[in-house]
C-alpha cells in the first residue's frame, strides 16, 4: 500500500493538463472552419463571388485567427519550458512528446505548402515561356504555311502532268483511245482521283475519275480565265478537304487541265482554330500573376492554420498523455525491482490509458500469483532434479536421455566412462552419431508404440570392445513425439565369467571322460611294440612309426587334458606381500635368454614395489602374456618384421591399482571379437588351445583385478593391460560383487 500512496503523491504533483480550456478548442475549430470557407470561396464553389473586397475580408479574418492560435501555442510552450526548468516530474518525457507531435505536424504542413506553391508556379510558368509564346503566336502562320505547301505540291505535280500531255498532243490527234489510256496512267501515277481537260468555255473534253469524290465543284468561268500556262492555279474552299488546280495546255489550243485531290481536313480548318487559340492564350497570359498570387495566399493561410492547429492538438494531447504514462513508468520500475504488489491509480476519462492502468493492475496481480506458484514449483523441481542427479550419479549403468528429435539431453557419469567421452561432448548431439549401434533400436522405438525394448549390442571405443545390454523406455504420453531413456549396462565381464564357468565345467567333464582310457591305450601300444617288435620282419619301419605315433599322440592328449584340468581347477591364490617389480624383472630376464633376437624394454620403477598378490600365479600370468607377445612378433613375415620389440611397463600412479602394460610390435589383435579372446578355446594361432589368456584373466580376477586387450599406441602391434589392487583383495567377495568390480575396472582404465 505504500507504493500506492507514493504514486498518488506523484499524481498530485503533476502539472495541470487543462491548458487554456475551451478557448483553445474554440480558436482551433474557428480557424479550421475559416480555412475551409476561404478555399471554397476562392475556388468558386459558393454563391459568394471572390471579388476583391470579399477576398480582403476573408484574409483579414484568417489573419486574426492565426494570431490567436499563435498566442495560445506560445502560452502552452512557455508553460512547458517553465516546468522543464523547474525539474517537474516526467518533464523530459513531456518535452519529447510535444516535440515529436510538433515535428510531425510542422513537416507535413511545410512540405505541402512548399510543394503546392512550387507545383503551381512550375505548372503555370512553362505555358508562358518565350518559346511557347512564339509557338502560339506563329501557330496561324504555321497553319497557313502548311496549306500553301499543299498548294505548291499540287501545282508542281499539275505542271508535270501538263507537260506530259503537251508532249502527247500527237498521240491525241492520232488515237484518242490510246491518249485516253495515257491520261489515265499519268493521273494514277501522280495521285489525282479526278482529272479533266476542259475547253475555255468549260466544256469537258476528256475526264478520268479513279475515285468518286463528293462535293467537287466544277471550275467557274473566272477560274478558267485566271488559269495560266506557266503556273498552276490552286483552288480550295473554306470547308471540306478537296484541293483543286487548273493549268492551260499550250499544245492543245488553250484548253485547261483541271485536277482535284483529297488532303488532311486540318490543312483548311486548322488556321481558324489556331487564331482562336492564340486569342485565348493571350487572355490567360494577362491573368497569370493574379492566379499565382491568389493560390499562393490561399495555400499559405490554410497551411498556417493547419500547422498551428496541429501543434495545439499535440500540446493538449501530450499534457493528457504524460500523467498516466508517468504513473505507469513508476509502477513498471517497481515491478522491475521485484515488487509485484504495486498498483496504479486509475482516473475516469483517461480512456484507453485508464484501461491500460487497469490491465496493468490485473497483470501485477496475476504476476504475483504466478510468481508465488512458480517459486514453489521451481523449488520442488530443483529438489527433484538434485535427487535425480544423485540417483543417476550412483547408478553403475549408463543412462542417456534422448528427446523427440533424437538429441541427447541427459547423461550420467557411468555413460561418460563407458563411451570415453565427456558430458560436454555428448549433450545436444544426435544419438545416431554418438552411439550408432543403438540408432536402429531408437528408430524402431520412436515409430512404434512399445514402452520398453531390450537388446544386446557390442561397441568398440578406443580399441576396447564391450558387450552392452541396452534397454530403451519411453515416457508415458499420448503425443506421437516421445522422449526416450536409454540404459546401457556393461555385461562384458559377466558374460565372460558365465562363459568361463561354462567352459570350466565342460573342461572338467572332458578331462574326466578322456583321461581314463588314455593310460590303457598308451600301455597297450608300448606292449605291442615290445612283444611283436622282434617278430615282425616285414614293414618293421611302418610298425614302429605307427606305435610311436600312438604313444606320442596319447602324450599330446594327456597334456591337453592336463590343461583342461588346470583351467577347471585353478588353484586359489595365496595372497602375500610380494615385490611386483622384482617379479616382472625375473620374467623379463628369462624371456631375454629364451629370445635374444627380440629387444626387451624394462619400464619398471627402480627399487621394490610391494603389493598383495600370489607371486607364482602372477609370474605365470605375466610369462604367458610375454610369451604370446614373442609369438605375435614371429608371426609377422620377416620382410615386414624388422626389429622385434617388447616393452613391459609398471604404472604406480593409479590410486587403487598397479597397472602392468605389455606392448609389442607384432601382428596385434583382431578388431572384431577381440574381447572374446579372453574366453576359453578362442585363439588366433594355429595349434593353440585358447586357454592361455582365459587362465591369465582368471588369475587376475581372483586377485580382484582384470585385463584388457588394446592396440599398440605407437603403431603396429598390440598391448595387454593388466591390473591388480594395491591392497589385499577381500576373499569374501563372491560373484555377487562382480558387477562392482567390473565397474571399478572400467573406470580405472
Automatic annotation (TrEMBL):
Residues 384-456 form the PAS domain. GO terms for biological process: regulation of DNA-templated transcription. One of its GO terms (cellular component) is plasma membrane. It is found in: Cell membrane. InterPro entries: HAMP_dom, HATPase_C_sf, HATPase_dom, His_kinase_dom, HisK_dim/P_dom, HisK_dim/P_sf, NtrY, NtrY-like_N. It comes from the Bacteria. Residues 727-749 are annotated as: Disordered. Coiled coil: none annotated. Residues 509-728 form the Histidine kinase domain. SMART domains: HAMP, HATPase_c, HisKA, PAS. It is a multi-pass membrane protein. One of its GO terms (molecular function) is ATP binding. It is an enzyme of class 2 (transferase). CDD domains: HAMP, HisKA, PAS. NCBIfam families: sensory_box (TIGR00229). This is histidine kinase.
Amino acid at each position: 500500500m505504500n507504493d500506492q500512496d507514493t504514486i498518488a503523491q506523484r499524481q498530485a504533483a503533476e502539472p495541470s493538463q487543462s491548458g487554456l480550456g475551451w478557448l483553445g478548442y474554440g480558436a482551433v475549430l474557428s480557424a479550421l472552419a475559416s480555412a475551409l470557407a476561404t478555399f471554397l470561396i476562392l475556388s468558386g464553389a459558393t454563391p459568394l463571388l471572390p471579388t476583391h473586397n470579399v477576398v480582403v475580408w476573408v484574409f483579414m479574418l484568417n489573419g486574426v485567427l492565426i494570431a490567436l492560435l499563435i498566442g495560445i501555442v506560445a502560452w502552452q510552450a512557455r508553460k512547458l519550458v517553465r516546468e522543464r526548468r523547474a525539474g517537474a516530474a516526467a518533464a523530459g518525457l513531456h518535452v519529447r512528446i510535444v516535440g515529436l507531435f510538433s515535428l510531425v505536424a510542422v513537416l507535413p504542413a511545410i512540405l505541402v505548402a512548399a510543394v503546392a506553391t512550387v507545383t503551381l508556379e512550375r505548372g503555370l510558368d512553362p505555358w508562358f515561356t518565350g518559346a511557347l509564346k512564339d509557338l502560339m503566336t506563329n501557330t496561324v502562320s504555321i497553319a497557313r504555311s502548311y496549306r500553301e505547301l499543299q498548294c505548291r505540291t499540287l501545282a508542281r505535280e499539275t505542271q508535270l502532268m501538263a507537260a506530259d500531255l503537251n508532249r502527247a498532243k500527237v498521240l491525241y490527234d492520232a488515237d484518242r483511245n490510246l491518249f485516253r489510256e495515257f491520261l489515265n496512267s499519268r493521273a494514277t501515277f501522280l495521285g489525282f482521283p479526278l482529272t479533266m481537260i476542259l475547253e475555255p468555255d468549260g466544256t469537258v473534253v476528256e475526264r478520268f475519275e479513279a475515285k468518286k469524290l463528293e462535293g467537287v465543284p466544277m471550275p467557274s468561268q473566272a477560274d478558267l480565265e485566271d488559269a495560266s500556262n506557266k503556273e498552276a492555279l490552286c483552288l480550295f474552299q473554306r470547308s471540306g478537304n478537296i484541293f483543286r488546280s487548273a493549268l492551260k495546255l499550250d499544245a492543245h489550243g488553250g484548253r485547261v487541265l483541271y485536277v482535284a485531290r483529297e488532303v488532311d481536313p486540318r490543312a483548311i480548318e486548322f488556321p481558324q482554330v489556331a487564331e482562336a487559340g492564340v486569342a485565348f492564350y493571350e487572355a490567360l497570359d494577362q491573368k497569370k500573376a493574379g492566379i499565382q498570387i491568389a493560390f499562393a495566399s490561399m495555400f499559405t493561410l490554410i497551411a498556417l492554420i493547419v500547422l498551428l492547429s496541429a501543434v495545439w492538438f499535440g500540446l493538449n494531447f501530450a499534457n493528457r498523455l504524460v500523467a498516466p504514462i508517468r504513473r505507469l513508468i513508476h509502477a513498471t520500475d517497481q515491478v522491475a525491482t521485484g515488487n509485484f504488489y504495486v498498483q496504479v491509480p486509475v482516473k475516469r476519462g483517461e480512456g484507453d490509458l485508464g484501461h491500460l492502468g487497469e490491465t496493468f493492475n490485473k497483470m501485477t496481480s496475476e504476476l504475483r500469483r504466478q510468481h508465488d506458484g512458480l517459486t514453489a514449483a521451481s523449488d520442488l523441481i530443483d529438489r527433484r532434479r538434485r535427487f535425480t542427479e544423485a540417483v543417476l550419479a550412483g547408478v553403475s549403468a549408463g543412462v542417456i536421455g534422448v528427446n523427440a528429435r533424437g538429441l541427447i539431453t541427459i547423461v550420467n557419469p557411468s555413460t561418460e566412462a563407458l563411451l570415453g567421452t565427456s558430458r560436454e561432448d555428448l549433450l545436444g548431439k544426435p544419438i545416431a552419431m554418438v552411439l550408432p549401434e543403438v540408432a536402429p533400436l531408437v528408430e524402431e522405438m520412436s515409430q512404434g508404440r512399445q514402452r520398453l525394448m531390450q537388446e544386446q549390442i557390442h561397441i568398440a571405443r578406443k580399441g576396447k570392445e564391450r558387450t552392452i545390454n541396452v534397454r530403451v523406455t519411453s515416457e508415458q504420453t499420448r503425443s506421437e513425439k516421445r522422449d526416450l531413456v536409454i540404459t546401457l549396462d556393461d555385461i562384458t565381464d559377466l558374460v565372460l565369467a558365465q562363459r568361463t564357468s561354462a567352459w570350466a565345467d565342460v573342461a572338467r567333464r572332458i578331462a574326466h571322460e578322456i583321461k581314463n582310457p588314455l593310460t590303457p591305450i598308451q600301455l597297450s601300444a608300448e606292449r605291442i611294440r615290445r612283444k611283436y617288435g622282434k617278430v615282425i620282419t616285414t614293414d618293421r619301419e611302418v610298425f614302429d612309426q605307427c606305435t610311436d605315433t600312438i604313444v606320442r599322440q596319447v602324450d599330446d592328449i594327456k597334456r591337453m587334458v592336463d590343461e583342461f584340468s588346470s583351467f577347471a581347477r585353478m588353484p586359489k591364490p595365496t595372497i602375500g606381500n610380494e615385490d611386483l617389480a622384482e617379479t616382472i624383472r625375473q620374467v623379463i630376464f628369462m624371456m631375454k635368454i629364451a629370445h635374444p633376437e627380440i629387444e626387451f624394454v624394462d619400464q619398471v620403477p627402480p627399487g621394490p614395489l610391494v603389493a598383495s598378490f600370489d607371486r607364482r600365479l602372477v609370474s605365470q600370468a605375466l610369462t604367458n602374456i610375454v610369451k604370446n607377445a614373442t609369438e605375435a612378433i614371429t608371426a609377422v613375415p620377416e620382410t615386414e618384421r624388422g626389429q622385434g620389440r617388447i616393452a613391459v611397463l609398471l604404472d604406480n600412479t593409479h590410486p587403487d591399482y598397479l597397472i602392468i602394460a605389455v606392448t609389442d610390435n607384432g601382428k596385434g589383435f583382431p578388431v572384431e571379437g577381440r574381447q572374446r579372446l579372453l574366453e576359453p578355446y578362442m585363439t588366433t594361432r594355429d595349434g593353440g588351445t585358447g586357454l592361455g589368456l582365459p587362465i591369465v584373466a582368471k588369475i587376475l580376477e581372483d586377485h580382484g583385478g582384470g585385463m584388457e586387450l588394446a592396440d599398440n599406441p605407437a603403431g603396429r602391434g598390440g598391448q595387454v593391460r593388466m591390473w591388480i589392487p594395491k591392497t589385499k583383495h577381500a576373499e569374501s567377495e563372491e560373484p555377487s560383487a562382480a558387477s562392482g568390480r567390473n565397474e571399478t575396472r572400467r573406470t580405472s582404465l
